[in-house]
Amino acid sequence: MKEIKVLVIDDETAILRMLDMALSKKGYQVDTAESVKQGINKLQSNEYHLVITDMVMGRMSGEDVLENVRGLKGDDIPVIAMSGTPWLMDGHQFDAVLPKPYSLKLLFEIVQNLLSPKGDCISAH
């Protein structure tokens, strides 16, 4: 089985560590970035199967991440947005929105759905 690579972008170190540990335990290869700029640099030099991004990170946001993923890689890579205000995400082009706080069970369900061949656009809110 091919190893699935996930990029997690968040400016909170504790969230990066938690998601890295949780996703790694499920068998995913996880790469993390502490800023949108660092995440975009990693996107330019690596191949990922999924991107998970926080929405609010200083001057740049999850929308900047989405724009760069779509510009660099097209629609083939699903992007999950993590947001404390998921109701403000209606109409955005993310493949899924993960409302904060969230359970790891919900995270894994969304990840599995998006990485399955039949993964349709879903929202967790």
Describe this structure in words.
With 125 residues, the chain is of the alpha/beta class. The chain has a single domain, classed as Response regulator (Rossmann fold). The protein contains 4 helices and 7 strands. The chain has helices at residues 13-25, 36-45, 62-73, 104-115; strands spanning 5-9, 29-33, 50-54, 56-57, 60-61, 79-83, 96-99. Strand 4 and strand 5 form a beta hairpin. Helix 2 (36-45) runs parallel beside helix 3.
Keywords summarizing the entry:
Rossmann fold; disordered C terminus
SSE diagram, text form:
Blueprint: E1 5-9, H1 13-25, E2 29-33, H2 36-45, E3 50-54, E4 56-57, E5 60-61, H3 62-73, E6 79-83, E7 96-99, H4 104-115
Parallel strand pairs: 1-2, 1-3, 3-6, 6-7
Antiparallel strand pairs: 4-5
Largest sheet: 5 strands, parallel
Average pLDDT over all residues: 88
Q: What is the count of helical runs?
A: 4
The number of E-state strands comes to 7
Strand percentage: 15-25%
Q: Name the helix and strand elements from N-terminus to C-terminus, one letter apiece.
A: EHEHEEEHEEH
As a whole number of angstroms, the C-alpha radius of gyration is: 13 Å
The number of distinct structural domains comes to 1
Instruction: Output the CATH topology.
Output: Rossmann fold
**Category from helices, strands and their pairing:** alpha/beta
Share of residues in helices: 25-40%
Shape: globular
